[in-house]
Structure formats: structure tokens, C-alpha cells
Design a protein that fits this description.
Elements: E1 4-8, H1 21-34, E2 38-41, H2 53-67, E3 73-76, H3 82-95, E4 99-103, H4 112-125, E5 130-134, H5 136-139, H6 145-151, E6 157-162, H7 167-177, E7 182-185, H8 188-197, E8 201-204, H9 211-222, H10 226-242, H11 250-258, H12 278-287
Parallel strand pairs: 1-2, 1-8, 2-3, 3-4, 4-5, 5-6, 6-7, 7-8
């Protein structure tokens, strides 16, 4: 249903933590003009954990309005309460999102049966297309391929974002249910290989700062052109690594500020990038050909 480079969009904020709508509009135009294939709004990279429900739903409506149907919008609507996830997913659908992305319930540490019942309940309650999201490094919860296979026959569960970076895990999902739902990478460092194996794209942090290169890399991998995909991905590898030198989205928001695209704002408990990381992230940007403030 969706394919290519799908940016896990940051939520631009001013230094006081208020959402900066002018920068949001500029970011949307930046991505549309650069060829980004879809916007993933208000997910982990969008600091969904620090937004209240009104802000979350308001941002989804605003992003859909700004995109104007030019590319798909996928709304981050996961929660660790099933009822809250249902309410946010309904909000995403009502906002006009093309699909919703639902992270596994964090902190609760549900069983595989609990995960199955959670996602089945959200899919039954809200008829919008839904993409599962597995990121055990953040959630202390791992959605196993066997459970994905149980969920795959549900008609409005259309994909899974697999962010373990484990290519063998991706292969298992493709083998077990690749004809029933689409697989997306949630790990930029291994995205190229996963797409060449059969995944449909990458929900990407790197695409925030290098959208055209990520689009071109994903397009080459989707076409089976390993040589071209590797050529592009080689320039992006430092970004794939160093945009996680501290917790996401700390480095990527700092990088976007260096590019002059957003203010420096984050919400606590996130804090600004440590100064000892500045040169590392700047060097990664330059290796990718990204212009930053102060460059000639």
C-alpha cells in the first residue's frame, strides 16, 4: 500500500517547547519537493510521548491539511493503553490520515497473546489501514513473527514496521506473511538490505535531513539495483549511525536546527545534544552532502 522513503517526521518546537507551525509547514514542503514518499507524523521521532491528546490530534489534522494529498500521511497513534490507542487511531482516521502506525504497548510488557488481542481490538474498532510497529529497544516488548502471522489476516492490518535491525527477523516475517502484509524497515542502517530482500520501504529518521538521497536509495533498492542503492547508502551510513549518538530525536533535531530548518526546541525529559557530539553529527551531515549553517 505504501512504499519507498517514509520520513519519521520531527515535531518542530520553539525553545519553550511550543509547537512551531511555521517550521512545520516549511518541513512539509521540504519533503514534498525532495521526493519523500510518505510522511509518518507524530511517532517516536515526533515526540508523541510528550504531547497531550489535543496536541497529538491537532498536529495530525494540521499535517494532513499541509500535505494536501500530495503524498500519503501515516499517523502515529500507538499507546500502551488499548483504549487510548483506539481513541488516537480514530483521531488519525478522522484527521484524514491514509493509515495509522501503532507501536507495541510499552512498559506494560504484555504477553504475545496480549499483543494479539491489543492489535486485534484496535483494528476491529477503527477501520483505517493500520501498520504494526515493533521496536523492542524502546518498548521492552517484542512482537514475534508468529504473532505477526496471527494478525496478518485481519484485513485492515496492512503492514509492519520492524525496527530490530535483525535481517533474519525480517526474512521470517516475509516468509510467514509477506503475501498478506507489507514489511517496512524501521532501522536506517539495515534498510537497504531489507528492501532488497523484499521489504517495501523504510520509515526513516535519516530522511529528515537527507530526504532526496533516502528516496533515491529506496527507489534503487525497490528496483533491485543493488549497485546504485549501495552507492547512495554509502554516503548515508554515518548519518544512519550518528543520528543515534544520543536518544532519537535529540541528534536529528539538532541537525535540522544546524540546517536552518527548525528552532532548537525539545521537551523534557529530552535535553539538547551534548556539545561533544556536535562535530560527529556535523561530519555525518557533510559526508551525506547536506549543507549546514556556516558552510560555504
Amino acid at each position: 500500500m505504501f512504499h519507498g522513503s517514509m520520513v519519521a517526521l520531527v515535531t518542530p518546537m520553539r525553545e519553550d517547547g511550543a509547537i512551531d507551525e511555521d517550521s512545520l509547514e516549511a518541513l512539509i514542503e521540504f519533503h514534498v519537493s525532495a521526493g519523500t514518499d510518505a510522511i509518518v507524523a507524530v511517532g517516536t521521532t515526533g515526540e508523541s510521548a510528550t504531547l497531550d491528546e489535543a496536541e497529538h490530534c491537532g498536529l495530525l489534522r494540521r499535517i494532513v491539511d499541509l500535505v494536501k494529498g500530495r503524498i500519503p500521511v501515516i499517523a502515529g497513534t500507538g499507546a500502551n493503553s488499548t483504549q487510548e490507542a483506539i481513541e488516537l487511531t480514530r483521531c488519525g482516521m478522522d484527521a484524514g490520515a491514509d493509515a495509522c502506525l501503532l507501536v507495541t504497548p510499552y512498559y506494560n510488557k504484555p504477553t504475545q497473546e496480549g499483543l494479539y488481542q491489543h492489535f486485534r481490538a484496535v483494528a476491529a474498532a477503527v477501520p483505517v489501514p493500520q501498520i504494526l510497529y515493533n521496536v523492542p529497544g524502546r518498548t521492552a516488548c517484542d512482537l514475534l513473527p508468529e504473532t505477526v502471522a496471527r494478525l496478518a489476516p485481519i484485513s485492515n492490518i496492512v503492514g509492519i514496521k520492524e525496527a530490530t535491525g535483525d535481517l533474519e527477523r525480517g526474512r521470517q516475517i516475509l516468509d510467514m506473511c509477506g503475501d498478506q502484509l507489507d514489511l517496512y524497515s524501521g532501522d536506517d542502517a539495515t534498510a537497504m538490505e531489507l528492501i532488497l530482500m523484499g521489504a517495501k520501504g523504510d520509515i526513516s529518521v535519516t530522511a529528515n535531513v537527507a530526504p532526496k538521497a533516502m528516496h533515491d536509495m529506496c527507489a534503487a533498492a525497490l528496483a533491485g539495483d543493488r549497485e546504485r542503492a549501495e552507492q547512495i547508502d554509502r554516503t548515508l551510513r554515518a548519518l544512519h549511525r550518528d543520528l543515534f549518538v544520543e536518544s532519537n530525536p535529540i541528534p536529528v533535531k539538532w541537525a535540522l536546527h544546524e540546517m536552518g530548518l527548525i528552532p532548537p526546541g525539545l521537551r523534557l525529559p529530552l535535553t539538547p545534544l551534548s556539545p561533544q557530539c556536535y562535530d560527529r553529527v556535523r561530519d555525518a551531515l557533510r559526508q551525506a552532502g547536506v549543507a549546514i549553517n556556516g558552510d560555504a
